[in-house]
Each structure stands twice: as structure tokens, then as C-alpha cells.
Amino acid sequence: MAAARERGLLVVGVARSNADRNLDISDDKELTEAIAAERPDIVINTAAVVSLDACEQDHGQAWRVNTRSVQVMGEAAAASGAKFVQISTDHYFTGDADMPHSEEAAVQLLNEYARTKFAAERIAGQWPNALTVRTNLVGFRGWDGRPTFVEWLLETLRNGRPVTMFGDVYTSSIDVQSFAYALLDLIYHDAQGTFNLASRDVFSKRAFIEALSRRFGLSLDNATAGSVRSLDTPRAESLGLSTVKAEKLLGRRLPVFNDVIDNLAVQAGERET
Q1: Which one of 4, 39, 130, 212 has the minimum C-beta count within 10 Å?
Q2: What CA–CA distance (Å, rounded) separates 126 from 168?
Q3: What is the pLDDT of residue 269?
Q4: What angle do CA 177, 175, 68 make, to 5 degrees?
Q5: pLDDT at 273
Q6: What average pLDDT values come out for the chain (273 residues) when binned by 10 residues?
Q7: Reduced to 3 DSSP states, what percent helix, strand and coil does the chain have, rounded to the nearest 5?
Q8: What is the pTM assigned to this prediction?
Q9: pLDDT value of position 232
Q10: Are 257 and 250 in contact (CB under 8 A)?
Q11: Pairing mode of beta strands 203-204, 170-171
């Protein structure tokens, strides 16, 4: 929303509370009426149940939020003549270590989160001008009691609490600000279909934690190595995304690993000042 406003766009934020417009995304009527009332040019869906454990514990809620709402939003957007943009996930690949996956790579759906998000992609694909974006986001939001991974990690390291570093989980995480600018550029170019929007590099969670701790001057004395295989909920771990398709359309390169770390440091400084 901040990136769109920087470009002079009128933006309406929708959430359960404390938004420009408050509603329950699982209420079809509320959702349809909100889009009809605003008559937007673009509808961007960033909402999801992202906790793997929560999705496993309540399949119905995961389906209502991650999948059913996409059908309702897409239909309402089409009725208003709006472009529909679905923010998806990278949680589709396993056993490939740090290999970057193209938009055409075969997926493996290991849990309910992946199943509901992939179903949402197929639903979004029924509208010819819709855009689906696969990504892995890192950044800040400043919500009390609901930290992002980066916020939790920095607070944990600053307080010397234990942290487990997974060297066998690979991602192409991109900072939210860089993602937002690139997403708006994709929309400007009328991108359609599925695009990966991520860092150009694929790196392990351990490498990410180590780099972030160095950039912020924080100790890893209480950090230990771990494996994703020790976790209860089955999960994909080879989440690298190829950015070739997006970069070709944008005409520029997306951030590399060090850029993402530097951007997070700058954004943290801006929040503190």
C-alpha cells in the first residue's frame, strides 16, 4: 500500500480490523459487496492462513480463507472490470536443495497449506488477465504480539535466546519493499498468468540468519544447527524460485541475497527513526 501511494495511486486496504474497510474474508457477501462498492481497477489478494500447523488443524478454515475467497474475489473483480492479482507461495518443491524452480516446474503438495494455495492458483487462472505471483517475503509490520519471522529473529538474537538454524531449507526470500515495487511494475506491464517474484539467489535459512546477524552485529552464541526433518508437520524445503521470466518482462534484475539483507537493515533503521 505504501509503494502504491508513492506512485500516486488511490489504495483501499481491507482486513478484519484497523483497515480502511473491515470485513471477514470468509463471508462471501461482505467480500462481494466491498469490491462492488469500491469498483477498483485492481484487486490484490494478500490474505491467507500461512501457518502450516493451523492449516493442518482446521482444513475447513484453510480452504475458506486460502481458496474459497479467491473464487469470490475473482468473480467480484471480473464483474467490476478489475484485474485480479493473487499472491501465492513457494511451498511447492522438495528434494532439490538449492535449485531455482521455474513457473512450469512440477509441484509437490505435502500439506494442507500447499494444497489450498495451489488450488487458489488454479482458480485464479480461469480469468485471462489475472496475475498469480509466487514469492517468499521477509520484512517488518510492527504488529504487537504477531511478529514476522525477521522481527522474531532479531528480537530473539538481541535477547540471547536460543534459535535453531535450518541448513536444509532453501528459499529465494525477497524483502517486502522490493517485492511491492516489482509487483506494481508487473501490473503496469499487464503481466498475466504465473510469475515468480523473489530474490535472484537461492540460499538456506541458516545462511539467511547468519548474514542478518552479521549485518545487525548480533551474536549467534545461542544458535544451533537443525534439520527440517525434525519438525512434525510435513513441509517442502527446496523453495528456490527462478526469476528469469519476471526479469525479462521488467527489463531489470531483481535483488540478490546481499541486497535483501541490506534492504532489511535500511528498513529496520527507518522504522526505528
Answers
A1: 39
A2: 36
A3: 85
A4: 85
A5: 54
A6: 96 94 95 95 96 96 97 96 98 96 97 98 96 97 90 96 96 98 97 98 97 96 92 91 98 98 92 61
A7: 45, 15, 40
A8: 0.95
A9: 80
A10: no
A11: antiparallel
Torsions phi, psi of 164, nearest 5? -100, 130
Judge whether 157 and 218 are in contact, CB under 8 Å. Answer: yes
Buried b (16+ CB within 10 A) or exposed e, 80-118: bebbbbbbbbbbbbbebeeebbeeebeeebbbbbbbbbb
**Contacts (Cβ under 8 Å, ≥6 apart) of 76:** 31, 32, 35, 36, 43
Per-domain residue ranges of the chain: 2-272
Terminal Cα-to-Cα distance of the chain (whole angstroms): 20
The pLDDT of residue 230 is: 86
Contact 107, 212 (CB under 8 A): no
Q: Collapsing DSSP states into helix, strand and coil, what is residue 98?
A: coil
- The Cα 133–Cα 46 span in angstroms is 10
- What are the E-state strand segments in the chain? 14-15, 21-22, 42-45, 83-87, 131-134, 137-138, 163-166, 170-171, 174-175, 193-196, 203-204, 223-226
SS3 83: strand
SS3 103: coil
